Prior knowledge:
The structure is a single chain. The chain has a seven-stranded mixed β-sheet, sandwiched between helices. A two-stranded antiparallel ribbon has the order 6-7. By secondary structure, it is an alpha/beta fold. The relative contact order is 0.15. The chain is 30% helix and 31% strand. The model has no long low-confidence stretch (mean pLDDT 97). It has a single domain (3-265), classed as Vaccinia Virus protein VP39 (Rossmann fold). Residues 6, 9, 13, 58, 60, 64, 79-81, 84, 105-106, 123-126, 129 line the site of S-adenosylmethionine.
Amino acid sequence: MADEYIASNKQLWDNWTLLHEKSDFYDVAGFKAGRDTLNPTEVEEVGDVAGKSLLHLQCHFGMDTLSWARHGAKVTGTDLSETAIDLARALASELGIEANFVCANLYDLPAALQGQFDIIYTSGGALWWLPDIAGWGKVIGHFLKPGGVFYVRDQHPAAMAFEEVDGRLQPLYPYWQPREPLKFDTHGSYASAADYHFVEYGWTHSLGEIINALTAQGLHIEFLHEWPHLFFKMFPSMEQDEQGHWWLPGRSTSIPMSFSLRAVRH
Ligand SMILES: C[S@@+](CC[C@H](N)C(=O)[O-])C[C@H]1O[C@@H](n2cnc3c(N)ncnc32)[C@H](O)[C@@H]1O
């Protein structure tokens, strides 16, 4: 069962949240001073959110959720980590931003939250943590209003099949959803070099599995964009550009690094 892996990941994320709150990567002070944490591509691709209800899946400690509220959305953020949700609520209260935050395993969310939403949004390293991508689609199908918009921007599954070994990318991981999770020893996190060691469990999902999880719920794909850059340094040899995007050396476009997808429910 995936429950034991999700329980272990919850512990990891509770501890990572404490590291991330203090990290330069998340720059909480800048956010409090008014910095928009949303990626400009996401803002453009999601479109106008003013006055719309927005459900943010896997919101971590809520800075993106609260940024959507600053853009005018009526926001609900949800996450597995209690520490993250406590921090999200504290930030909302300190900044006087109206927001609802719910702590739940994604698969248990239909029992923990009422209502349907105009927009469902998720991004920035979310899908890797999910054991069942078809089940993820069902949660989106449950919460999306007729006529509503679903948007995801995440790591591209093709890139996730690779590991960098001695400066070269090698295909060491499954492209399709594995039965058992992949297990990694963590040292610090993607946002912190702190001396914290734990394990993380994750699952890859092919692009086809992701799309079929959505179309099975009656969603119509408006676009799927594949990008040659990423929002964090996934491989040691990656280089950052002026806009903060991470690229393979020489701005290689040999494999896609991230994707964004927008779908609507008719
Ligand atoms: C990389 S973060 C999301 C990224 C977010 N854009 C950010 O950087 O702030 C992944 C989030 O997924 C959450 N998560 C992991 N497994 C989950 C699950 N089974 N249900 C709900 N949330 C989960 C974690 O607690 C974490 O906050």
